[in-house]
Amino acid sequence: MRHMIFGESHGPAIGVVLEGVPAGLELDLEAVQRELDRRKPGQDPTATARRESDTVQVLSGVFEGKTTGAPLAMLIRNSDQHSQDYEAIRYTPRPGHGDYAGFIKSQGCQDYRGGGHFSGRLTAPLVAAGAVAKQALALRGVRVGAHISSIYGITDASLEDAGALEAVAAKPFPVLDDAKGEEMRQAILEAKNEQDSVGGAIECAVFGLPAGLGAPDFGRNVEGIFAQYLFAVPAVKGVDFGAGVAFSLMRGSEANDPFEVKDGRVVTKTNHAGGVNGGITNGMPVTFEVTIRPTPSIALLQESVDLRTGEETEIEIKGRHDPCIVPRAVPVIEAAAALAACEVLGI
Ligand SMILES: Cc1cc2nc3c(=O)[nH]c(=O)nc-3n(C[C@H](O)[C@H](O)[C@H](O)COP(=O)(O)O)c2cc1C
Ligand SMILES: C=C(O[C@@H]1CC(C(=O)O)=C[C@@H](OP(=O)(O)O)[C@H]1O)C(=O)O
After folding, report:
1. Distance CA 221, CA 276 (A)
2. For NADP(+), which residues are the binding ones (predicted)?
3. Which residues of 113-123 are buried (b: 16+ CB within 10 A; e: fewer)?
4. Pocket around ligand 1: residues whose beta carbon is below 6 Å from it?
5. Three-class DSSP category at 156
């Protein structure tokens, strides 16, 4: 299943075209909308105040409730753009955002309003695509779930089983431990109050992938496939599998996952490898943690350069920004993981 996301944050609409969706899938459009509702802006003081309904419309690829196998196109209209907020910074790129790199790549022709095609808004169609992927995966017994694992050093409880993630998906603030979630919310509001932002991390797991998928080689390596989808999510700056960076503090005797037989199946007692050995799935859940940077657009005065004159200058960013991207990125990471899992399975 391949996908192509189109649109700009302040254009008329954004959307996605999915190619290679298996024919005959009974598409649950309400489930697609529920995923979009988990991500949509304007729902909490810890998120951007921009209000969008993020109502999805299927334009093609579905007939009489079932996928046809033809390209499946989904559209989401934009309605609450404040483009004026971006006039003053048109030629003075925001530190940390895609403005300068985008200006150079597009030779100054990019849609600068609201970050254009670089905006986190473009993760709405990604979530829609991921929701279709999740439905295709469910038919193969594969499930994807995620939670906020940390925000600005405050950590959630660790993930023990697949069931816990279903409850998390229904929460407005997707953590396992709600008391920790409240501490995280306070840290976000404190940063916002100080005209600043914070980052954090998301832990994600894919349950039900059979052992033996993938290859050690470039292009077919399971970790590589997942990483490619995950790094395409704006603000993702790190991806690590299983114990990840904690491996650097372990000995082999702690890091290795001992084998055992459970219900006639070879499994491992621990899952430090994150379900992948040698680039191939080993039948344990594929687990990884994604690091999300603090939101680039902060209200504090920042240093920039006027690209018309080449002179150094200072900018003050107006507008409505997420003081922390992590909570709204949870369904986005699940969507990217679902699309990656489809590729691993050859869907
Ligand atoms: C769900 C989501 C919401 C985001 N909201 C904002 C925002 O309000 N303001 C902002 O400056 N960046 C926001 N971002 C991050 C920028 O889009 C991102 O940092 C920018 O495109 C540069 O990409 P990079 O961080 O991957 O280098 C958001 C990202 C996501 C995934
Ligand atoms: C609109 C969304 O998030 C936007 C992501 C974003 C950015 O720079 O990434 C900047 C802000 O855009 P604007 O200035 O137009 O309000 C956020 O509100 C969304 O996620 O749907």
Report:
1. 9
2. 39
3. bbbbbbbbbbb
4. 48, 97-98, 115, 118-120, 123, 233-235, 293, 295-297, 321-322, 325, 328-329, 332
5. coil
Question: What is the value of pTM for the model shown?
Answer: 0.98
Phi, psi of 31 (to 5 degrees): -70, -35
- Cβ atoms of residues 300 and 273 within 8 Å: no
Q: Which ligand is nearest to the CA of 292?
A: 1
Ligand 2 centroid from CA 53, angstroms: 14
Complex ipTM above 0.95?
A: yes
pLDDT in tens, 61-105: 999 999 999 999 999 999 999 999 999 999 999 999 999 999 999
For residues 127-138, give the mean pLDDT. Answer: 98
Q: Which of 202, 199, 201, 229 is nearest to 145 (CA)?
A: 202
Which homologous superfamily is 2-345 in? Chorismate synthase AroC (3.60.150.10)
C-alpha to C-alpha distances, 279 to 210, 217, 220, nearest whole angstrom:
14, 7, 8
Quickly state the pLDDT bin for 139 (edges 50, 70, 90).
Answer: very high
